[in-house]
Design a protein that fits this description.
- This protein is an alpha/beta fold and about 350 residues long.
- Helices cover about 50% and strands about 10% of the residues.
- It has a five-stranded parallel β-sheet, with helices on both faces.
- α12 (about 250-270) runs antiparallel to α14.
- It binds zinc ion.
- Zinc ion binds near residues 49, 60, 61, 63 and 64.
Length: about 350
């Protein structure tokens, strides 16, 4: 749980005033700039039993462990039901999960803050996105803010702070999270493996995390397309696929091939599909159909390929060769694949 580079100054400021920190903070700014991550890092740092000099959580103590697992007794995260369920990936049964933070959720907090903390330290409450509180919930929170409970930090994270009750806003110390400078976002995204960050940043309104999410979506789509081809080795054309994949990151593709093969072999030997449950049906169909020894040899070939993936002489040829090996592996009775062009 690192602090993003564009948040370091703000982090230092907050850390410097840690001893006299307001009991309520409002972290406001555009969606996708890292407010929630900052709030979580701050919560973890405050609950940590042996924090780093920077104020960050050590990541090693009991408290940090609980925090990571989401069960620190002195930490509460309050969010709309719909968000929690999206994170748990549990589809809602029957009625639609609420998009609002309801009064019951805020009332629970009032009960919580009336008790002493479990670890005799701080208690941290995180409410996000705060604008999801309906009027009743916001009014209930206001009562808690008016009589701040001891040893408690309440953090509101908001993408639309202007829509919060003015009375709630005025009781919080406001922390503004501006969109980071373009160069800093570009640099960070490049470090995340995004070769051409500019169009993604533009699409995401220059919010770097939102831009990264867009690239992840795109990557997912590319992966789906690539694996769909691997799933049909009879019609797989290594030359065409290598050509089509030219703009993809080679290292990703070798990784996808490795994982694909891992699952083919794993499924054959033990029935386990580890990396591609979304392609389980296809993998089960293919698993009995290749010579095992040749598959293990190809696995070694991929391992070697991964080592030189960042400096192949010819990217397209490199990938073509690997796909050709895959095709031959999966079509052992086929006479040598003939290049059609
Ligand atoms: Zn710790």
């Amino acid at each position: 749980m690192a602090i993003y580079p564009w948040q370091l100054d703000l982090w230092r400021q907050i850390h410097a005033m840690r001893q006299n920190l307001s009991h309520a903070l409002l972290l406001q700014g555009r969606k996708g700039v890292g407010k929630l991550e900052f709030a979580r890092a701050l919560a973890r740092g405050m609950l940590c039993e042996t924090p780093l000099p920077s104020g960050e959580g050590c990541g090693k103590c009991l408290a940090c462990g609980w925090f990571e697992q989401g069960n620190h007794p002195d930490f509460r995260s309050v969010e709309p039901e719909a968000l929690t369920e999206a994170e748990d990936e549990k589809p809602a049964k029957g009625k639609k999960p609420s998009q609002e933070i309801k009064i019951e959720q805020i009332r629970e907090l009032a009960g919580l803050v009336s008790l002493s903390t479990h670890r005799n330290g701080m208690r941290v409450i995180l409410i996000h996105p705060a604008e999801a509180m309906n009027t009743n919930a916001a009014n209930a929170l206001l009562k808690t803010l008016e009589e701040p409970p001891p040893h408690t930090l309440i953090m509101l994270v908001s993408h639309q702070a202007q829509s919060l009750l003015p009375t709630v806003r005025s009781r919080c110390l406001k922390l503004a999270f501006p969109v980071p400078p373009l160069e800093q976002s570009m640099e960070w995204l490049r470090q995340q493996g995004v070769a051409e960050p500019a169009p993604f940043l533009a699409q995401a309104g220059y919010a770097p995390l939102a831009a990264r999410d867009l690239t992840l979506d795109e990557l997912q789509e590319l992966r789906q397309g690539f694996l769909s081809q691997l799933a049909r080795p009879q019609t797989l054309d290594p030359i065409v696929l290598a050509e089509k994949s030219e703009k993809l990151d080679l290292s990703n593709m070798v990784k996808w091939l490795q994982q694909w093969l891992y699952d083919l072999i794993g499924c054959r030997l033990s029935g386990i599909i580890r990396y591609q449950p979304d392609f389980a049906a296809e993998i089960r169909t293919l698993a009995p159909r290749f010579p095992l020894q040749a598959a293990l040899t190809f696995q070694k070939e991929l391992l070697e390929a991964q080592k030189i993936v960042h400096h192949p002489l010819n990217t397209q040829l490199f990938l073509e060769q690997l796909l050709l090996s895959y095709r031959q592996l999966m079509n052992p009775t086929e006479s040598d694949y003939v290049r059609t062009r």
